[in-house]
Design goal:
about 5% helix; nine-stranded antiparallel β-sheet; 28 strands; binds beta-D-glucopyranose; mainly beta; single chain
Length: about 375
């Protein structure tokens, strides 16, 4: 069924797509629960903001809103089959608009930091708003996490595509950028995110999703018992303002080494300059890969519930952030105050500050080129 995309149609809370699975159930095949529902999550600048809830055949679901393309909920089974929300976030749009540390959002145009809020392309210097110490973080003051993305269910019926046009000069970045981020929710509990963009002037781009995960209880307790594996032999060490030094350093002997699955809390308090700079883990890992395309970046699991998540990506890096700056002042879903380290992020990306680091993989996008990348968050139990 083709989804007719009008504001009126979206305002009503209706089931808009039921796939072929929904055809007459037999005795052996249980009825599929697959659906995409829309409802109004709130209103901003007079415009309704739609929440798309994608439910797969087994009943696991993901909720995504047009504001910031934010993943507001991800209901995953534990090893006994009980669904639980595994991402941090808020109950209302107003709370997201008021103050969020990028919970669940698409971050861009440049996810992570650009040193001094400056970079140069073809001899022209561009200046960006500085919003994190001396640096520009996550696209500036009004980055992609704070704009309205136009959401449309995909033809395949298992996803929603979010589009946004960023004007030339927006937040200091050159070029009119047309961006689309598509979320697909499979029956295997995989959230696939496909990013695509094009520009009419040379620019830089680095898009990611900034979900904070807590596989145990969605953020009611710290993530320190979660066991993490990061598929990286190297990382990009930083200075005191979290800007890479330019070096691709070995993880041998470092408390940042997660090649062997290790509890996040096991070494987070170690005396270590890099852990000091990040106030814990807040570092970009260089993913070990043999070929282009999707590679395993990380696996995280939670022993009590048995929930686990693999992160696969076509990107060269992943920022592991252990929620060090959460301090209890964000009151999230179900009135939970998100305390220090109650969520973890695995932000797939190009390396921080690449526009100023000639030896890092390039983040320059030129007219005629298409920026295309994908990341998959795959959930399962152990
Ligand atoms: C950064 C952290 C920052 C967090 C929230 C992460 O991507 O690496 O330093 O505190 O985003 O802004």
């Amino acid at each position: 069924m083709r989804f007719k995309h009008t504001r009126t149609a979206r305002a009503a809370s209706v089931v808009v797509a039921l796939l072929a699975w929904a055809c007459a159930p037999t005795q052996t095949e249980p009825e599929s629960m697959r659906s995409i529902e829309t409802s109004q999550f709130g209103v901003i600048e007079g415009e309704p903001v739609t929440l798309f809830t994608l439910t797969n055949a087994s009943g696991a679901s993901v909720g995504i809103i047009e504001y910031g393309g934010i993943v507001v909920s991800l209901n995953m089974p534990d090893r006994d089959g009980n669904l639980g929300d595994v991402v941090l976030g808020f109950d209302t749009l107003d709370a997201y608009v008021a103050d969020t540390p990028y919970f669940g959002a698409i971050t861009g145009r440049y996810a992570n930091r650009i040193a001094g809020g400056k970079f140069e392309i073809d001899g022209t210097t561009y200046e960006l708003p500085v919003n994190n110490g001396p640096n520009s973080l996550h696209g500036g003051i009004k980055g992609f996490d704070k704009v309205i993305w136009q959401g449309t269910p995909t033809e395949s019926g298992d996803g929603v595509s979010f589009s946004y046009v960023s004007q030339d000069g927006e937040e200091g970045y050159p070029g009119r950028l047309e961006a689309t981020v598509s979320y697909t929710w499979t029956d295997d509990n995989e959230l696939q995110i496909d990013y695509e963009a094009s520009t009419d002037k040379p620019t830089v781009i680095n898009l990611t999703n900034h979900s904070y995960f807590n596989l145990k209880d969605g953020g009611a307790s710290p993530i320190l018992d979660h066991v993490l594996m990061i598929n990286a032999d190297h990382y990009t060490p930083v200075d005191a303002t979290s800007i890479p030094l330019g070096e691709i350093a070995s993880l041998d002997g470092s408390p940042l080494d997660f090649r062997e699955p290790t509890a996040i809390g096991a070494r987070i308090g170690d005396e270590n300059e890099q852990l000091g700079f990040g106030a814990g883990y807040d570092h970009n890992y260089v993913i070990s890969r043999d070929a282009d395309g999707l590679a395993l970046a990380a696996t995280v699991s939670e022993p009590e519930t048995g929930r686990a998540m693999d992160v696969l990506t076509a990107e060269p890096g992943v920022q592991f952030y252990s929620g060090n700056f959460l301090d209890g002042h964000h009151i999230g879903k179900g009135q939970v105050a998100y305390q220090h380290r109650s969520g973890l992020c695995l932000e797939t990306q190009h390396y921080p500050d690449s526009p100023n680091q000639p030896d890092f993989p390039s983040t320059v996008l030129r007219p005629g080129e298409t920026y295309k990348t994908s990341t998959v968050y795959k959930f399962y139990t152990r």
